[in-house]
Design a protein that fits this description.
Strand content: 25-35%
Low-confidence stretches: 158-208
Shape: elongated
Number of strands: 15
Oligomer: single chain
Strand order of the largest sheet: 3-4-10-11
Order of helices and strands: HEEEEEHHEEEEHEHHEEHEEHE
Radius of gyration: 35 Å
Number of helices: 8
Number of domains: 3
C-alpha cells in the first residue's frame, strides 16, 4: 500500500491542495521569489514544497476514505501502516516526492521538475565596464589644446604647467548593473522505449495466482496470447501491478491487484486511475 498512498500524496500536492499528515504536519507547494545564491547570481522564482507543523490542508486519512470508499478506522489503519514503513528515525521518506527531515522538506529532482515544468533559471548580475578612461582622455586633450592655444596667443610668459593647473578633470563613473539570463536549467527525462511492432508476442501459460476475495481488473481477453500481451503492457506502466491471469468462463481476465479487502482495491484504483481509467473491482465468490 505504500506506493498507492505515495501516489495519493503526489496528486494532492501537484493539484495545489496540499496534504495534512496526521501527527506529522502539512506539506504544500509554495511559490518563492528570486533568491541570491552568490554575489553575482540569483535563483529565479520557483515552486518549492514547504512544511508546516499546523493543519493547513485536507487530511490524507480523509482522502483515503474518499478514494477507497472505506470506513474512517480502515483509512487510519492504512495510514498507520504507511507511516510505519516510511518513517526512519525522524525522517519521513515519500517515494517519488522527497524526504521530510525535521521541519525541512528536500524534494526529489523528478518532483522538483514536475512542479517547475519550465525549469529553474539562474540570473547573473554583471557590472558593465566603466568608460571613465574615455572622459579622462578627452579632458586631457582639451586641457592640452587650451594650453597650446594660450601659449601661442599670449606668449611664453605662461608656462604649460601653469596653464594646465587652472583646469581640473573630475570624473564620475557610475557602474550600471544589467541582468543576463543564462541557459534555462531544464530537467531531462528518459524517453519511453517503444516495443518493436514486428516482434511477435508469445503467449505465456496461465500462472497459478494467489486467490483473493477481490481483484482490480484491467481487462478480459478472448485468447491467452492477448492476455499475455496485456500483462506485459500492464507491468510496464504500473510496476506495483501483480499482472495475474485468471480464468473467466472461456476467456482470460487480467488483474492488476488482489486483496481480501474491497477498500484496498478501491484505493489501488484511486491511485492508478489516471493510468488505466477503466479499472474495476471483481468479487470472486
Amino acid at each position: 500500500m505504500v506506493e498507492e498512498v505515495n501516489k495519493i500524496i503526489y496528486n494532492m500536492l501537484i493539484s495545489g491542495r496540499g496534504v495534512y499528515l496526521p501527527d506529522v504536519g502539512t506539506l504544500f507547494i509554495e511559490r518563492q521569489g528570486a533568491r541570491r545564491i552568490a554575489k553575482d547570481r540569483l535563483l529565479s522564482p520557483r515552486n518549492v514544497v514547504t512544511f508546516s507543523s499546523q493543519e493547513q490542508a485536507p487530511s490524507l486519512v480523509d482522502e483515503i476514505v474518499a478514494i477507497a470508499g472505506c470506513q474512517q478506522s480502515q483509512a487510519q489503519d492504512i495510514y498507520a501502516r504507511w507511516r510505519e514503513k516510511t518513517l526512519q528515525g525522524s525522517d519521513v521518506t515519500i517515494g517519488g516526492i522527497g524526504v521530510l527531515r525535521g521541519k525541512s522538506f528536500i524534494a526529489d529532482k523528478s518532483f522538483a521538475a514536475a512542479i517547475n515544468p519550465k525549469g529553474v533559471k539562474t540570473l547573473v548580475v554583471r557590472r558593465r565596464r566603466s568608460n571613465a578612461w574615455i572622459y579622462i582622455l578627452c579632458g586631457v586633450a582639451v586641457v592640452a589644446a587650451l594650453a597650446i592655444f594660450a601659449f601661442l596667443q599670449w606668449g611664453s610668459e605662461w608656462s604649460l604647467s601653469e596653464q594646465t593647473s587652472k583646469y581640473e578633470v573630475e570624473t564620475v563613473a557610475e557602474p550600471v548593473a544589467e541582468v543576463v539570463t543564462e541557459a534555462d536549467v531544464k530537467p531531462t527525462a528518459d524517453a519511453d522505449s517503444n516495443a518493436d511492432a514486428n516482434t511477435k508476442t508469445i503467449a505465456r501459460p496461465i500462472e497459478s495466482p494467489t486467490y483473493h476475495s477481490y481483484y482490480v481488473v484491467m481487462g478480459v481477453f478472448s485468447t491467452e496470447q492477448n492476455a499475455a500481451r496485456a500483462v506485459e503492457q500492464l507491468r510496464s506502466k504500473i510496476k506495483e501491478a501483480t499482472g495475474e491471469v485468471l480464468p473467466y468462463g472461456d476467456k482470460y481476465m487480467v488483474t492488476a491487484f488482489g486483496s481480501n479487502s474491497r477498500s484496498e482495491c478501491n484505493l489501488f484504483i484511486g491511485a492508478y486511475g489516471d493510468v488505466y481509467p477503466d479499472l474495476w473491482v471483481y468479487n470472486k465468490k
